[in-house]
Protein 1
Amino acid sequence: MNTGLFSTSCFCVLITFISYWGGVSLKKHFRFALFNPLLAAIVFSLVLITLLKITPSDYQTGNETLHFFLTPATICLAIPLYEQISLLRNNLTALLIGIVSGVITNLVLIFLLASAFHLSRTEFITILPKSVTTAIGLSLSEELGGIVSITVLVIAITGVLGSMIGESICRIFHITEPLAQGIGIGTASHVIGTSKALELNPAAGAASSLSISLAGIITVLFSSFTVSLY
Amino acid sequence: MKYLKQFSIILAITIVGEYCHYLLPFPVPAGIYGMFLLLILLLLGIIKFEQIKETSLFLLDIMPILFVEPAVSGLLLNGYLFYDLWMPLMIIILTTTAAVIIVAGHTTQFFIRHGKAQYHLKHKNDHMMSKGESQK
């Protein structure tokens, strides 16, 4: 019986909207820094899907309409870049050094922690692209021989986590320059972090947009070398 | 008609981005090609910001909502692959994400301030000469 109304595309999109809206209004009510509307939306969606007995594949197909907007929306990240272009240009060296330092930290730490947890080579490759945007990470994992579906999940978790803790970490560790906040959040947590950085400050959003693409490309360049060492 | 025109421009760039992704051998997604293409077109003045303003701001605004479904589907469909590994994976994700924000953020901040200090040192004399003239 449940496969009728509840599995239609409109209904699945509505679940996503209501979940996100619920997350945003909860955020307004109690202003706890770690509370993240995106994470709340994910939890609400999971609950609703389970309660209404919608199958995961129906939910996925139902939301294809929304998925369609992802590439056009990513392209629109050119807007913050364009609006802040002179600020970015004036600080380009600092931004580039920041992104490279972030990528190297990421790869070295994953390498060390993966060795510490005795992860297999496949598992190591699977989590290596965790900080790059899904489309880059997916092909990177595939090319080096990781488990693509876990890579996608790890990338999503990293993004949500970055948008959750980004603001607090910047505050605790005295990262006050908006550009530096953007580079940190963008290099660590790609597009999902960037959508958060855009809310913080236009300059942070622009720096974060820049770091999605550059961090992704630099990670690709360094990855095969890192894997050869593991 | 305004929105129709604006969305058509963005879709046209999306198509070019997808074509680049298809043609070029790099693992760069269509969105990144498109982003740089749009940036170049805006900087060259071929596309004016006003021509895509409302639609692009709308897309940027709804962007976080677009990440809900992939995360939920990922958890539901592939979450089981995660079971044996979830402890080490969560520790790795948490530590590295925090560390990257701190290192990348602080490095950038250091060099921004360093650059500013050098700039001020270099232009100190000019500033002193034209005091009052170029004050904001």
Protein 2
Amino acid sequence: MSPSVPMPASPDDVAETLRRVGYLPDAGLSTVAYLALALQRPLLVEGEPGTGKTALAEALADAMGMPLIRLQCYEGIDATQALYDWDFTRQILHLRAAEAAGAGAATDELERSLFDERFLLARPILRALRESPVVLLVDEIDRADDEFEAFLLEVLSTNQVTIPELGTVTASVPPVVILTSNRTRELHDALKRRCLYHWIDHPGLARELQILRIRLPEVDEALARQVAAVVAELRLRGEMQKPPGVAETLDWARALHQLGAHTLDVETAAATIGAVCKYREDIERVRASLDVLLTA
Amino acid sequence: METGERDADGAAPISPAAALVGFTHALRAAGLAQSPDRAQLFAAATARLGAARRAHVYWAGRATLCAAPDDIVAYDKAFAHWFGALPVRSGSPRAAPKTVVQAGLDRPAGEVGTGDARLVPVLASDQEALGHRDIASLSAQERRRLAGMFGGLTVRLPQRRGMRRRAAHRGEIDAAATVRSLLRHAGEPVRLRHRRRSPRPRRIVLLVDVSGSMAPYADSLLRLAHRIVAAAPQTTEVFTMGTRLTRVTAALRARDPDTALRLVGAAVPDWSGGTRLGEQIRAFLDRWGQRGLARSAVIVVFSDGWEVGEAALLGRQMARLRLLAHAVLWSNPHRGKPGYAPVQAGMAASLPWLDDLVAGHSLAAFDELLEAIGSA
């Protein structure tokens, strides 16, 4: 199997393919994404929540015509959830069935049949190595424990895993690996050293408007313009507990469109503010200053 | 996109490879840890993109030589200096605190005690007395002696219930392990295996006020912070608060306390200024705390509560902190003095949100504080 889209030849090429699937990268992001593809290095993406870190992996998979395999990290995740596991219940059933059939003597044979492909539960990383070329998204790696990072590092640097009972699985083509982190803790230098690094910031007003137009073409342009302007102003003020990300901007525009709004006025804005602000204090503050925000 | 390539400003031409390698050296001097393989990766990335365009070199370097948002600020500066013009516009994080560690060549040499060896033979009772005295009242020599005593403090780490389960003799039944041992015995029932959630160290966040009014205590507080970081390097974070918030965790990870303090000294731009505690705590919450650093952590604020800014803002931020954290402790050096009442505006506004207000004026008080942290 080979990717249905040829490997991009330049950063502009990457920008173009991403744009085609509705993701608008800036010059830095497309350059870094190109480098990750060309040098076959994992890409570590950090940034405020809602700036499109996960969306980047989705768009890249979509644009390159590769399947996306996602590994969501959480505290306590270990190899059996990330790599592979044996289906114990079915193994027991198999054993009992063999016993009932009276296949007593050939224990070696029985054992081999127990650790067979069909009892293997392939988890995201093993799947990615087997099915590559794919995009492997390791989401919120900062939530996993340190030990898991070390384990991940080993897989990422060799692109292979060994299953004692079955043998070694090596990726024919290294998967495109995107790691995201919310920086709730510092990652180990060893892992960072393997990766290319990129920090995604909130987009500027012009680019956010473009994103709105591309992702939600059904929303009125005037409305989109107002929404983008208000959100940009909210971020600029810097007094919100959780400044809205692009995801919130899109939600808000969608909500307003759903209510049949063509322009943003104080009343509809106040009714839908929950799409942008996720804290009571933020909602109160924004509600109180909606007049100023909308006339600005 | 500008393509402002200027070839060596008319001076003797340098080969591109030498310029790139030189740049990685400049970055190292600017405090960005660089290893040879990173430099190689940088060279490979530049080769891929072509070194003719400034923006290409910039992004190739930023992707390969940076590893944290704080690095980007230092990187931009070094790039501007090395390649002789302002960097291309980038989405670097706004107002990232500069925790760049500069090589401390021009530090005053006074702090680096050379005569420590002569001061060792001290009576134990004398040490004991020193440990109980208010640090602000100590002479320079006594302070130096006290600095050597921080090693004797025992750090007790608070714990939380972990998500991960480990094999244990009691606890819930571990189905997978039981079945595995069953398999090993060819399906014969064997004894049940158990597992249990194992405790993990809880995160500790120290917010140290380094404003003018706290100046006599700053050195000792950072030594205390160094002890705690040494005991739990992965789960402790330290910030200094003055006119701005600075993350000093990395500097405090240096093994030797004096080296660590020197690194902190170079990193913190605002010793002995005023404090706007409310604003600093808000900056901490916005940039780090809410995202996860403060969540279910033990937070210790070291301050005397003299708030230059608005006390109501401080109160609101303390409330936010309390909602995120597992426990919020406040260590105030004046707390241990007779006749103290928490009536300063900042202290009074914070009081309702504290789990405990403890003393913090002597080594003995620090020991009690460590006890409080450990049992939080």
